[in-house]
């Protein structure tokens, strides 16, 4: 055995030399001293925007892409500057990043881990992208985050709401601006209690995949803490399009609240089906029956139409916020694209600026330097009030919005209204919280 | 040579040369140029070309020869990937044990699924294989077995990956990514800059390419063997086979298992290049993709499936990345109005519209080239080689064996 | 007990959708011998007929309201649908409210036409081609159709509500003398009724009209009917149109149940093939029977009591049933010998 | 001595009695014809002999072994080859390949996983196949796709493939059905030649009296699922029962 080991190690030593000899030139071809993947050469730097462009989340991906394009414009000093004017850090000057003009490449995640990794790899290997930004599912975020860790580039996660992204699957090269299931639940529970009372019996329908599980776990724990009882939790297949057979039994279960731990098409359909069954018109246990959707998005609300009316949920950000940052972003996005930005657009926009800012402050594109600049970074002026990128798990902490479907929308974008802006302190948790346990951030990897 | 005929040797040598020089062939445009968008010579895509080539070759051994259309082959692809990642988790990052396990496990599954499904033929067989694969997809996607046992088998939708807490009993300090026997890391890449051009030579790609060549060689051997002839006989006339004293079942089952092993190997290689195994690799869309690859390239031909695989993967990875910015840069030389006009015209077909282009090409190919891309190649070949028509193309035989009228 | 009744009811409703789609598919697949991967796309086109009618009826004049502001602080645009200005607000909004049933009138000619054109322009040339080629061309067509819809309507689902008269649910419990609730949505009951009507109509058409009789004869033995000097090809084109219309109508009425999106056809594609094959190739009654059977079994498998014993069974029940049936009955429930078995 | 012994075989399809107490014995090295009007049960009987159908009663012994319950390929491997009414050949394969398959089946049995050996290296099989094609005058067509041949050639190929297996019993099911007169005569000549050159038992089911009387040494007449009479052709020709049951109507039909 030891002989074998020796041989192996011997092989490896020669191998390591050969490997290094093979590996080095790729990443160092431009700047022999940089020592990190895709060190930018010349006067441009390339960002990689990896969003779903086909498949069910294509519309969301499109909105993310719009925001990212806008961010690039602002970084390059075009347009009105948007949130760069309200951002508390003043490192960005509108002359690109570190004086290099920003260009970008795009990829299609198809909302599939494989395709997302292929697209990210192509941007890293072929186009020399220095960072990857975007996406709209937790599975994809975890997959691409792992890839970026291995490749040695920074990953800004886009829309990913699963606890795992900065929990058991967290990575040193990955950062998440979006909130997570735990924070949604922590923000929602008090509002739900005050709106519907403490004596409620909740029936959960949960999409049968990682995000659904963590969302259900979080909201159940938070609502139980305010006195609610969880009557049942039913896992629904992701591929379901018709949720009638899961909704039919709800009325006879003795529950008076239905919690839909669904996202995207699942949520649009399950909510539509639930309203069809007339759940919202019923009275159970002497109380009006209610539906809760822990994670909302503008596009889902648009897809579900009138069915969202009166239904409470949470969001990372909304264009109706009245702080200066949100107003500036909504204005410049609205003027360019004729529509208000979605919360995933906001996340991707902010992440692009934050990345650029971190590079400026670190004075290098080296992911380790950038990571260091982002870790523990506190700032304001990007919507959601004072914000922290926590060093321990790279989760962002900021105010969370509790939303409600608007009863009488005046136009197609006016589907949701802000019920409460839950302060950051209320949604914070310890880095070693059991729902986030199991993973390790590891060391930052600069690649080559 | 190598126990195969002259034409087949020629084909094998051509494929070998193409594989060897792929980094040059696939990167014909200077890096900075507008056309560089069409370059496909970067490690990830080159790896995908050969891996899906292996998958399609294997699928063709079943479908192209016996005519049995499996709609669940992606199940074996997924199994192969899971097997390799499990070996990473239990042993270390060496890819070899995992690849062996991938082939063995996929063979076992193929044996079981094939044994049951091959009791039926035609569309009934297709639906049986589809049903098995979709079941396996659902089970993996929600990790039903893992949940039942209270542990993790597939890690659900996130995909199976290596955590530092895994046993990894053979791990050494230097190991952090998949490697071949400790000799070379799969991601090692040497980049050759030649003037405005740049070419990537990636260890993982060459590893896959060598395996592709071996698998291609084996496929040639199978095609030209009595066994391969029997498989074509199955497709042609099962009744006559039975009354010629031949038992069709073990032939089809053997073909199914071999082709499942190819798929398992391909899946294993995917995880060898990129240490992650996701459930969507098993979904019916993935099974459908290999069917399309094979038909598109030319079912029943040797090289067709490889071409089909390359074609589809090229569109998925190259066309999807062409956004409006790129379009504007292409047409920048035109006057402003013309530029915008051209961008508007091309816009629906690229970027997020890449599916549309692919769909249209499927239709065009099948309408105008009934024998798939191979037939296209032959037609071009015929134009160039009118003088010695008799020599024919290497693929002519195989193409002719396509069923002229299946009805 | 009430839970089981409710699931059976729900299964009938789901099953009616499956049956309707499978019926159209069988008309093409089991009779013309064409593997039509674009059938799901036809269903999707039907649903988008409903969306289109809703959008057309909602075409509006725009006036600016200076007292209200939009999100950029500009005067708010107030939209008044033309139909409201033509017929008065009440009749106008009633027309918009009933856009889905109205869409049936729109969808029938449109889908017949699409089906007819598809057959004449494309499918016709593939009758003699291998099934593999049919798969490739119809799959390509399905992608093209859904990408076209995506281009014009976007990827997001579009809410297409049923008339407000059908909002809410009907409680069967008092009817059956049960003391719990057995509520089922009105629109789904309508869907069930509509599907049975269409299924009945198709069977009646094939059974009692000369046209139908010729087509049935052609299904059984195409050559002989051709020899009789009957232009069977033309009738088959019309059958293709009818199959498309059946799929389209299934889609129109489905729109209020789930907001239509461009890939809904692909979601139904695999399922509809399973239904048709379980029913047995070439058998219309088989397709209908299998549709209802799978719908009911799927619903029953999602009973909490069942899931407690077999977690995840609802995800795989369709496939388990398909495997069991195909292994015990070689040609599905009612399949004919020799159809798509080569 | 009898190579095939059919005893008390009966077969019903629902209410229809297709075969009723059939006894038949085919002697080695003879050409034995089974004739009878439509619906007499000829095809049913044949299918019982080759494993496609299993009779309800009775036994079928081939060379002392029962064939009942065996699968078609097993019965073939016992030494019974069958020629179909419409030639069953591998249409997508070349004539040579058709012949090779037959030869491989003879050499390697029902299944052999020789996936890596090249066909070209199997000299013994190739020689045998070529020899057979030469014998049967198909050598010049060996590169043709079998489906592209004339009906007569397809029949010739099918018979050759059966012969390549050196069967002990060759079953022919209306080998000239639907053929032009010239093709029919060719087929008759071919079968005569086979009969003369090879030690082989031939059982032939035929409608066409011309074929039957040109070839058969013994004839069994089947009517309504049961054997009416068995004798030499000369005797059968004059047999009043046969005339009554069969010949009168069939001469026009042929």
Q: Can you describe this structure?
A:
The complex is a heterotetramer of chains A (448), B (407), C (342) and D (254). By secondary structure, chain A is an alpha/beta fold. Chain A folds into two domains: 44-179 and 319-393, Response regulator (Rossmann fold), CATH 3.40.50.2300; 182-315, Rossmann fold (3-Layer(aba) Sandwich). Chain A has 13 helices and 17 strands. Chain A has helices spanning 2-28, 58-75, 113-125, 138-151, 181-196, 210-225, 244-247, 264-276, 298-304, 324-337, 343-362, 367-374, 424-427, and strands at 44-51, 101-108, 131-133, 154-156, 174-175, 201-207, 229-236, 257-261, 283-284, 287-288, 290-295, 312-315, 377-379, 387-389, 396-397, 400-405, 416-422. Chain A has a seven-stranded mixed sheet with strand order 7-6-8-11-12-16-17, sandwiched between helices. In chain A, helix 2 links the parallel strand 1 (44-51) and strand 2. The model of chain A is unreliable at 1-33 (pLDDT under 50). The longest helix of chain B is centred in the middle third of the chain and has 26 residues, at 248-273. In chain B, the strands form three sheets. A two-stranded antiparallel sheet of chain B has the order 1-6. In chain B, strands 2-3 form a two-stranded antiparallel sheet. A two-stranded antiparallel sheet of chain B has the order 4-5. Chain B is 62% helix and 5% strand. Chain B has a domain at 43-302. Chain B is globular and about 70 Å long. In chain C, the strands form two sheets. In chain C, strands 1-2 form a two-stranded antiparallel ribbon. A two-stranded antiparallel ribbon of chain C has the order 3-4. Chain C has 14 helices and four strands. Helix content of chain C is 68%, strand content 7%. In chain C, helix 2 packs across helix 4. Chain C has 342 residues and is mainly α. The radius of gyration of chain C is 22 Å and the shape is globular. Chain C has helices spanning 2-31, 39-57, 82-97, 99-121, 131-153, 173-176, 186-208, 210-220, 222-227, 232-254, 264-279, 284-301, 304-309, 313-328, and strands at residues 60-69, 75-81, 169-171, 183-185. Chain D folds into two domains: 1-79 and 167-254, Rossmann fold; 91-166, no CATH class. In chain D, the strands form two sheets. In chain D, strands 6-7-8-3-9-10 form a six-stranded mixed sheet, with helices on both faces. At the B-C interface, helix 6, helix 7, helix 12 and helix 16 of B face helix 5, helix 11 and helix 14 of C.
């Amino acid at each position: 055995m030891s002989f074998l080991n020796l041989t192996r190690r011997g092989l490896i030593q020669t191998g390591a030399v050969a490997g290094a000899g093979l590996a080095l030139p790729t990443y160092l071809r431009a700047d022999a001293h940089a020592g990190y993947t895709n060190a930018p050469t010349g006067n441009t730097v390339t960002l990689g925007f990896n969003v779903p462009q086909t498949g069910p989340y294509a519309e969301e991906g499109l909105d993310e892409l719009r925001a990212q394009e806008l961010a690039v414009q602002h970084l390059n000093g075009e347009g009105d500057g948007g949130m760069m004017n309200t951002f508390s850090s003043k490192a960005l000057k509108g002359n690109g990043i570190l004086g290099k003009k920003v260009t970008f490449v795009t990829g299609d995640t198809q909302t599939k881990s494989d395709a997302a990794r292929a697209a990210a790899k192509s941007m890293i290997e072929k186009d020399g992208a220095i960072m990857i930004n975007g996406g709209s599912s937790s599975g994809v975020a975890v997959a691409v985050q792992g890839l970026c860790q291995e490749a040695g580039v920074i990953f800004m996660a886009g829309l990913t709401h699963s606890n795992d992204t900065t929990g058991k699957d967290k990575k040193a090269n990955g950062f998440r601006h979006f909130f997570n299931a735990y924070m949604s639940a922590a923000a929602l529970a008090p509002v739900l209690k005050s709106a519907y009372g403490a004596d409620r019996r909740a029936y959960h329908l949960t999409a049968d995949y990682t995000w659904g599980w963590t969302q259900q776990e979080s909201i159940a724990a938070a609502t139980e803490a305010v006195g609610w009882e969880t009557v049942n939790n039913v896992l629904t297949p992701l591929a379901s399009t018709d949720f009638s057979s899961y909704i039919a039994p709800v009325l006879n279960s003795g529950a008076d609240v239905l919690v839909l731990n669904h996202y995207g098409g699942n949520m649009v359909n399950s909510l539509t089906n639930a309203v069809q069954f007339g759940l919202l018109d019923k009275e159970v246990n002497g109380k009006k029956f209610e539906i809760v959707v822990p994670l909302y998005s503008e596009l889902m609300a648009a897809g579900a139409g009138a069915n969202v009316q009166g239904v409470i949920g949470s969001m990372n950000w909304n264009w109706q916020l009245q702080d200066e940052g949100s107003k500036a972003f909504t204005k410049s996005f609205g003027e360019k694209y004729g529509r208000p930005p979605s919360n995933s657009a906001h996340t991707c926009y902010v992440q692009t600026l934050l990345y650029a800012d971190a590079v400026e402050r670190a004075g290098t594109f080296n992911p380790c330097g950038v990571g260091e600049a982002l870790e523990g970074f506190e700032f304001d002026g990007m919507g959601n009030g004072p914000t922290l990128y926590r060093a321990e798990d790279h989760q962002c902490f900021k105010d969370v919005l509790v939303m409600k479907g608007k009863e009488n929308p005046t136009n197609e974008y006016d589907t949701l209204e802000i019920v409460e802006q839950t302060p950051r302190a209320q949604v914070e948790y310890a880095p070693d919280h059991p729902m986030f346990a199991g993973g390790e951030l590891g060391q930052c990897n600069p690649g080559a | 040579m190598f126990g195969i005929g002259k034409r087949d040797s020629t084909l094998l040598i051509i494929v070998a040369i193409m594989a060897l020089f792929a980094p040059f062939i696939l990167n014909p445009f200077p890096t900075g140029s507008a056309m560089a968008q069409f370059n496909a010579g970067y490690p990830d895509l080159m790896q995908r070309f050969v891996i899906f080539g292996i998958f399609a070759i294997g699928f063709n051994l079943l479908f192209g020869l016996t005519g049995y259309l499996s709609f669940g082959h992606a199940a074996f692809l997924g199994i192969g990937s899971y097997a390799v990642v499990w070996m990473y988790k239990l042993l270390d990052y060496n890819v070899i044990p995992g690849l062996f396990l991938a082939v063995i496990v996929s063979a076992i599954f193929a044996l079981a699924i094939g044994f049951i499904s091959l009791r039926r033929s035609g569309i009934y067989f297709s639906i049986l294989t589809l049903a098995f694969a979709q079941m396996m997809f659902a089970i993996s996607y929600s990790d039903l077995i893992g949940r039942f046992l209270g542990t993790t088998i597939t890690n659900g939708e996130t995909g199976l990956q290596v955590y530092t807490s895994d046993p990894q009993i053979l791990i050494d300090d230097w190991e952090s990514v998949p490697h071949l026997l400790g000799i070379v890391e799969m991601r090692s890449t040497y980049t050759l800059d030649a003037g405005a051009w740049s070419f990537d030579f990636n260890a993982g790609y060459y590893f896959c390419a060598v395996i592709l060549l071996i698998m291609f060689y084996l496929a040639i051997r199978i095609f030209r063997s009595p066994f391969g002839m029997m498989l074509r006989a199955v497709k042609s006339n099962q009744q006559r086979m039975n009354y010629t004293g031949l038992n069709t079942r073990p032939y089809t089952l053997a073909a199914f298992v071999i082709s499942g092993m190819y798929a398992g190997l391909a899946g294993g290689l995917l995880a060898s290049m990129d240490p992650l195994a996701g459930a969507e690799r098993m979904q019916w869309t993935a099974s459908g993709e290999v069917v399309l690859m094979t038909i598109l390239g030319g079912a029943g031909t040797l090289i067709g499936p490889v071409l089909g695989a390359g074609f589809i993967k090229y569109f998925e990875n190259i066309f999807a990345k062409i956004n409006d910015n790129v379009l504007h840069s292409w047409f920048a030389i035109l006057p402003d109005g013309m530029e915008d006009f051209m961008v508007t015209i091309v816009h629906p077909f690229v970027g997020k519209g890449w599916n549309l282009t692919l769909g249209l090409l499927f239709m065009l190919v099948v309408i105008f080239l009934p024998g798939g891309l191979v037939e296209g190649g032959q037609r071009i070949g015929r134009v160039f080689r009118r003088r010695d028509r008799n020599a024919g193309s290497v693929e002519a035989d195989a193409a002719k064996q396509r069923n002229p009228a299946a009805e | 007990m009430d839970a089981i009744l409710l699931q059976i009811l729900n299964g009938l409703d789901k099953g009616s959708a499956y049956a309707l789609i499978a019926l159209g598919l069988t008309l093409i697949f089991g009779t013309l011998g064409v593997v039509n991967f674009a059938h799901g796309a036809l269903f999707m086109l039907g649903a988008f007929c409903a969306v289109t009618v809703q959008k057309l009826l909602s075409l509006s004049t725009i006036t600016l309201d200076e007292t209200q502001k939009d999100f950029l602080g500009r005067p708010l645009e107030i939209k008044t649908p033309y139909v409201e200005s033509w017929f008065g607000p009440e009749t106008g909004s009633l027309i918009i409210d009933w856009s889905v049933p109205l869409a049936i009138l729109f969808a029938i000619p449109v889908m017949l036409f699409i089906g007819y054109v598809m057959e004449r322009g494309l499918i016709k040339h593939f009758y003699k081609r291998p099934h593999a080629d049919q798969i490739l061309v119809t799959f390509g067509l399905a992608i093209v159709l859904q990408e076209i819809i995506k281009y014009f309507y976007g990827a997001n689902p579009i809410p297409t509500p049923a008339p407000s008269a059908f909002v809410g649910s009907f409680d069967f419990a008092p009817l059956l003398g049960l003391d719990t609730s057995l509520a089922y949505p009105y629109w789904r009951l309508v869907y069930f009724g509509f599907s049975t009507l269409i299924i009945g109509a198709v069977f009646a058409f094939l059974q009692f009209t000369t046209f139908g009789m010729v087509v049935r004869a052609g299904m059984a033995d195409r050559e002989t009917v051709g020899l009789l000097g009957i232009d069977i090809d033309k009738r088959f084109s019309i059958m293709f149109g009818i199959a498309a219309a059946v799929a389209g109508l299934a889609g129109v009425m489905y729109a209020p149940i789930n907001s239509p999106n461009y890939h809904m056809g692909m979601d139904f594609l695999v399922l509809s093939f399973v239904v048709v094959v379980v029913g047995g190739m070439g058998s219309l009654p088989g397709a209908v029977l299998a549709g209802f059977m799978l719908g009911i079994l799927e619903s029953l498998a999602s009973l909490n009591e069942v899931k407690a014993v077999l977690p995840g069974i609802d995800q795989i029940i369709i496939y388990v049933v398909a495997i069991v049936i195909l292994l015990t009955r070689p040609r599905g429930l009612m399949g004919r010998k020799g159809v798509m078995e080569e | 001595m009898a190579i095939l012994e059919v005893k008390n075989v009966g077969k019903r399809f629902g209410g229809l009695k297709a075969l009723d107490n059939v006894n038949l014995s085919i002697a080695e090295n003879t050409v034995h014809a089974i004739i009878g009007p439509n619906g007499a049960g000829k095809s049913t009987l044949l299918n019982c002999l080759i494993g496609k159908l299993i009779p309800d009663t009775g036994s079928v012994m081939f060379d002392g072994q029962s064939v009942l319950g065996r699968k078609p390929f097993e019965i073939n491997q016992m030494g019974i080859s069958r020629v179909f009414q419409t030639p069953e050949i591998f249409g997508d394969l070349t004539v040579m390949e058709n012949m090779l398959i037959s030869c491989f089946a003879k050499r390697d049995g029902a299944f052999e996983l020789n996936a890596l050996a090249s066909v070209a290296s199997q000299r013994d099989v190739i020689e045998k196949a070529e020899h057979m094609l030469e014998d049967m005058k198909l050598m010049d067509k060996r590169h043709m796709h079998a489906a592209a041949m004339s009906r007569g050639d397809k029949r010739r190929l099918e018979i050759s493939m059966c012969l390549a297996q050196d069967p002990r019993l060759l079953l022919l099911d209306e080998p000239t059905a639907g053929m032009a007169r010239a093709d029919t005569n060719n087929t008759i000549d071919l079968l005569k030649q086979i009969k003369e050159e090879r030690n082989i038992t031939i059982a032939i089911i035929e409608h066409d009296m011309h074929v039957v009387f040109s070839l058969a040494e013994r004839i069994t007449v089947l009517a309504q699922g049961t054997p009416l009479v068995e004798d030499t052709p000369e005797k059968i020709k004059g047999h009043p029962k046969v005339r009554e049951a069969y010949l009168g109507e069939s001469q026009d039909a042929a």
